[in-house]
Amino acid sequence: MSDKESEESWINPEDRGWSQESYRDYMKRRDAEEDAIKKGTYEYEYDNATDKQVGGSHYKDCVIQPIEYIVKNKLDFLEGNVVKYITRHKTKGEGRKDIEKVIHYAELILELKYGKEN
User: Fold this and answer.
1) Shortest CA distance to 67 belongs to which of 53, 100, 38, 91?
2) Residue 55: which pLDDT band, with cuts at 50, 70 and 90?
3) What is the pLDDT of residue 113?
4) What is the full DSSP assignment across the chain?
5) Residue 5 vs residue 31, higher pLDDT
6) What is the structure's pLDDT at 112?
7) Which of 8, 66, 109, 114 is 20 to 30 A from 53 in CA distance terms?
8) At residue 48, what are phi and psi to the nearest 5 degrees?
9) Angle value at C-alpha 38, between 37 and 44, nearest 5 degrees
10) Is 68 or 46 the better-scoring residue by pLDDT?
């Protein structure tokens, strides 16, 4: 794509499949949602943020979601990532890579919390 084509697609939303009508529909929907929020009548798709997962269901299918375990046990970032990656290694499709991440985060905990081994 030439610079001119790139610039034109940036300037002209029609080139990206957008139209003024879809923009108007979006604004109408957004205004209706904002009004409902102000009135207290808006119904969220999910009751809680923990009911929602972006990008799969590898955490939602757990009896205890990693985020709930991490927060309730006051784990820090490194410890939380160990829990997260060990929980999903069988279900997300990156098994070996997730285990390597668990090991790496465990090594970081050893080094940063307990010092380098002599």
Assistant:
1) 53
2) low
3) 94
4) --HHHHHHHHH-GGGGT--HHHHHHHHHHHHHHHHHHHHT----SSSSGGG--SS-STTTTSSS-HHHHHHHTT--HHHHHHHHHHHHTTTSS-HHHHHHHHHHHHHHHHHHHH----
5) 31
6) 94
7) 109
8) -135, 155
9) 10
10) 68
Residue with tokens 């979601």: 65
In whole angstroms, how far apart are CA 60 and each of 22, 47, 64, 68, 92? Answer: 33, 14, 8, 11, 12
Hunting for tokens 């668990």 — which residue is that?
Answer: 102
Task: Give the distance, in angstroms, between the CA of residue 29 and the centroid of all CA atoms in the same chain.
Answer: 24
Token pair 């003024």 is found at 20
Quick check: 95 and 89 in contact, CB under 8 A? Answer: yes
- What the block records as the tokens of 71 is 């927060």
